[in-house]
Each structure stands twice: as structure tokens, then as C-alpha cells.
Design goal:
It is a single chain. The protein is an alpha+beta fold. It folds into 2 domains: about 5-140, PAS domain (Beta-Lactamase, 2-Layer Sandwich), CATH 3.30.450; about 145-215, Arc Repressor Mutant, subunit A (Orthogonal Bundle). It is built from 9 helices and 7 strands. The strands form 2 sheets. Strands 2-1-7-6-5 form a 5-stranded antiparallel sheet. A two-stranded antiparallel sheet has the order 3-4. Helix 5 crosses helix 6 (about 160-170) and helix 7 (about 175-185) packs across helix 8. It is elongated.
């Protein structure tokens, strides 16, 4: 693989379309890597010198496009709110010292926490990035479990539509009373549905069920 192939192919502005025909083993590996990163249930970015974005998977691209917490400014990572730019700069300073850090950014719809991790792997970089310490940026999840995953889990255990609709509330740890108020039904009705869900999934308790669901891989 030439020195510019991998990162230029993965950069979200220049990424090859899904239907692209691989050109040899190296191209196939790049295409597989792009697809793999897009399936991961966390937003991921790799930053080079001066916060320049070298790589961004699908969830990270969506976050950047939204602009509420993060944005792309002249090819570089910036906070959605200018007052948070100093937090990103400080985290990148820690990365250059080989240290990990967490950063919480504010936005109109709440907070988003980022993890900054120095990458020490011997990646072959374009010449313009030689000698640069790369930063892996991992974005916190918006939801504990995605809707598609819950749907597939419900189908796997043959839950009814009503039972499936209760799964998000279970994941959030809501009480029976809170679920009943949310759905405008009696607490006894909710308990009956929860009992059925436990029986179908083989979970001894709602806590066990919640632990199972939150540990599911993305679907």
C-alpha cells in the first residue's frame, strides 16, 4: 500500500462508495476497514497534527454534520460551542504527552463526552503527517441501546409489539409506576407484560434483563 492510500480512502470526504470494486488486496483491506468502522456502535475519529481529521466513521460524521457538539472547521475538529474549543486543545495536548483524557462538551440537547487516546501503533502515514502523534477520539453513545438492536432482540425472543415497546423503558431503568404513567395503563398491566418478557427471555429479574440488553452488540 502506498503511503497515502489508507487514510485518504477513509477520510469521510473522499471515502469510496460502498459499491466500489476493490483494487487488489490492499484496496480490499481498506474497504473492509471502512465498513467495519461504520458498523461500530460508537463514533470514532483519528486526528493528526493540529486536530486535523484523518478518519471518521459514520456515527462521527453524523455528529459532525449536526454541529451541536462537534463540527469540522477547515478540515479540523472543533467544538460546536467556541467556548469548548479549549477543552479539545487541552485533550490533544495530553495526547502529545502520551496521556488519555475525557472531555465533556455542552450542546443544546445535553452533553457529549469524548475520550482522547494516543495511538502508538506503527501506522504508515502520509509524509505530511510523519512524526505526528495520532489521537483516537471516541464519542460517547447517545443511547444505551439502538432501536434496531432492541427490535432484533424482540424478534429473537418472539416478544409481542407491546412487550417490545417496553424494552426502552427497561433499559432506562424506569420503575413499574413510571412505565405505567408513561403508557397510560395500570401498574398491574405493566407487571403482566414484564413477567411475560422475563419468561420469554429467560431473565430472572429486570436487572438481569437490562444487563443483557445493554451488553448486546449493535444490529
Amino acid at each position: 500500500m502506498d503511503d497515502t492510500g489508507l487514510f485518504d480512502r477513509i477520510d469521510f470526504e473522499d471515502a469510496a462508495p460502498p459499491c466500489a470494486v476493490p483494487r487488489g488486496t490492499d484496496a480490499l483491506q481498506s474497504d473492509v476497514l471502512v465498513g467495519l468502522l461504520d458498523e461500530i456502535d460508537y463514533g470514532l475519529m483519528v486526528l493528526g497534527a493540529d486536530a486535523r481529521i484523518l478518519l471518521a466513521n459514520q456515527l462521527a460524521r453524523l455528529e459532525l454534520a449536526g454541529g451541536s457538539h462537534l463540527r469540522r472547521c477547515q478540515g479540523k475538529l472543533a467544538a460546536g460551542s467556541p467556548r469548548d474549543d479549549s477543552k479539545i486543545a487541552a485533550a490533544l495536548g495530553s495526547v502529545r504527552q502520551g496521556q488519555r483524557s475525557l472531555v465533556t462538551l455542552s450542546g443544546p440537547d445535553g452533553e457529549l463526552t469524548l475520550s482522547f487516546v494516543p495511538l502508538h501503533a506503527g501506522a504508515r502515514l502520509p509524509a505530511r503527517n510523519s512524526g505526528v502523534t495520532l489521537a483516537l477520539v471516541m464519542l460517547g453513545k447517545r443511547n444505551v441501546c439502538e432501536a434496531t438492536t432492541l427490535q432484533k432482540y424482540a424478534q429473537l425472543h418472539r416478544l409481542t409489539g407491546t412487550e417490545q415497546a417496553l424494552l426502552p423503558a427497561i433499559v432506562r431503568g424506569l420503575s413499574v409506576k413510571a412505565i405505567a404513567n408513561q403508557r397510560s395503563v395500570s401498574a398491574s398491566t405493566v407487571r403482566a407484560h414484564l413477567c411475560s418478557i422475563r419468561a420469554k427471555t429467560g431473565a430472572r429479574s429486570l436487572r438481569t434483563l437490562m444487563a443483557r440488553i445493554t451488553s448486546l452488540p449493535p444490529a
